[in-house]
């Protein structure tokens, strides 16, 4: 049974055992990764965590309310005040206290929490971009490997046909055994290349399963071909794209780190600032025995206001503030270096993409030529105008050309992905 994956559709491992096959287009593969990739899930959790920490800082600026209930029993003790006996009956006190404390450091901490939440959000979007690009790269790699296996199997079939023909020729004395032996080596070499490519293909499928967050034994079929996906015009258009550095996630993170370092300076500067606190307390005392006329010294209402200002900290606040300022200067240098390096990286990635396209075009022609050469040599060999060594050499050249073509195609795809990631496309 074959199911087409739509949106958030996800199957459990138990269903995999029923030989369900997952048919994936590139877009649906990305969608599954966005919903089930565990690295991306952790990035989402980091956003929620940053938001919770931010609200912790905000909550410290808001009034805090506590309640208490106390019970005391003097076990019949009576106080003797110069002949006046005062009983000490059991009693309970119910209290509610509302307090608030405000300082500049708390306000700065709230700002730091906002910056941390924004950084977590940027990191999540960057992770989404990276996961999507990894899925795209693996998807293309699988298609290229499958195409390679098909080409190798076609070549193997041709070589095997020549080998069978040569064996018959040897039997009738028209060809020598050494010719058949050379072709058998070529057949074995081709089969080894196919086996190695199929193992690499299975590793790529496992990498895809890991990105999608699905079990290792989950059958996958890719529904799109290279011809459908590869758009050389779109890739080359990237060369003319303007690089807006503020769109780059790495730059955004470094920029927010710089803001964070600046706020750390402000936070430590407020260690010299005052703290204003206020509290209101309500208390109600209840005696549990007949205590008429008892003196109640517990005030029902009380208000307190406090303003504190640090005077001397033995240089601790000064050195902490100085360290924060130095960190901020370092972060400014890092920001400047990042900006320059990203512009340089943009130039390098444009060069890489242009070179990768030229190499791809060359290797594509090379494969076409070596394929024609092998076909031509094979025909000549069948008619006795070429040796088995010529067939072997042309077959080896074709394998080399195909490997170079595969690498050139992957380099082109990866160069395009790298430039798209830098440009945040």
What does this molecule look like?
The chain is an alpha/beta fold and 425 residues long. It has helices spanning 13-16, 26-36, 38-59, 104-171, 177-212, 226-229, 232-237, 249-269, 316-382, 388-423, and strands at 2-4, 21-24, 64-72, 78-81, 84-87, 91-103, 220-222, 275-287, 301-308. The strands form 3 sheets. The protein has a 4-stranded antiparallel beta sheet. Helix 4 (104-171) packs antiparallel against helix 5 (177-212). Mean pLDDT is 85; it is low at 1-18.
Q: Any descriptors?
A:
425 residues, alpha/beta, three-stranded parallel sheet, Outer membrane efflux proteins (OEP)
Short summary:
By secondary structure, this protein is an alpha/beta fold. 65% of the residues lie in helices and 14% in strands.
Q: SSE string, helix = H, strand = E?
A: EHEHHEEEEHHEHHHEEHH
Q: What's the CATH topology name?
A: Outer membrane efflux proteins (OEP)
CATH architecture: Up-down Bundle
Q: Can you identify the CATH class? A: Mainly Alpha
Q: Widest sheet: strand order?
A: 3-6-8-9
Helix/strand-derived category reads alpha/beta
CATH homologous superfamily heading: Outer membrane efflux proteins (OEP)
Distance between the termini: 37 Å
Portion in beta strands: 5-15%
DSSP, total strands:
9
């Amino acid at each position: 049974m074959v199911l087409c994956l739509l949106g958030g559709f996800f199957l459990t491992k138990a269903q995999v055992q029923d030989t369900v096959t997952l048919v994936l287009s590139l877009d649906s593969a990305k969608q599954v990764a966005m919903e089930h990739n565990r690295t991306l899930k952790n990035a989402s959790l980091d956003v929620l965590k940053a938001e919770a920490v931010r609200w912790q800082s905000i909550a410290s600026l808001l009034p805090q309310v506590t309640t208490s209930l106390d019970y005391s029993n003097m076990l019949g003790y009576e106080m003797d005040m110069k002949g006046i006996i005062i009983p000490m009956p059991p009693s309970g006190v119910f209290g509610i206290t509302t307090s608030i404390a405000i300082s500049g450091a708390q306000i700065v901490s709230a700002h730091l929490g906002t910056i941390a939440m924004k950084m977590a959000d940027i990191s999540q979007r960057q992770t989404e971009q990276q996961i999507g690009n990894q899925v795209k790269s693996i998807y293309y790699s699988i298609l290229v490997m499958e195409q390679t296996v098909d080409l190798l199997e076609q070549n193997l079939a041709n070589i095997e046909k020549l080998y069978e023909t040569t064996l018959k020729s040897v039997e009738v004395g028209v060809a020598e055994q050494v010719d058949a032996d050379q072709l058998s080596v070529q057949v074995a070499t081709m089969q080894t290349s196919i086996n190695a490519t199929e193992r690499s293909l299975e590793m790529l499928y496992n990498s895809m399963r890991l990105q999608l967050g699905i079990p290792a034994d989950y059958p996958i079929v890719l529904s799109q071909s290279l011809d459908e996906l590869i758009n050389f015009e779109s890739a080359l258009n990237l060369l003319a794209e303007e690089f807006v550095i503020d769109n780059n996630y790495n730059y955004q993170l470094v920029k927010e780190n710089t803001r964070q370092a600046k706020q750390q300076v402000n936070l430590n500067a407020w260690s010299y600032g005052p703290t204003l606190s206020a509290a209101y307390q309500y208390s109600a005392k209840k005696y549990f025995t007949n205590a008429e006329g008892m003196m109640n010294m517990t005030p029902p209402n009380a208000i307190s206001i406090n303003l504190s200002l640090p005077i001397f900290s033995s240089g601790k606040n000064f050195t902490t503030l100085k360290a924060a300022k130095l960190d901020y200067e370092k972060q400014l240098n890092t920001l400047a270096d990042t900006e320059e390096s990203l512009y340089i990286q943009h130039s390098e990635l444009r060069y890489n993409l242009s070179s990768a396209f030229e190499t791809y075009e060359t290797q594509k022609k090379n494969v076409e030529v070596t394929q024609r050469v092998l076909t031509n040599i094979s025909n000549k060999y069948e008619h006795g105008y070429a040796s088995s060594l010529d067939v072997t050499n042309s077959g080896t050249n074709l394998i080399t050309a195909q490997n170079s073509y595969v690498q050139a195609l992957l380099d082109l795809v990866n160069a395009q992905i790298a430039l798209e990631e830098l440009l945040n496309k």
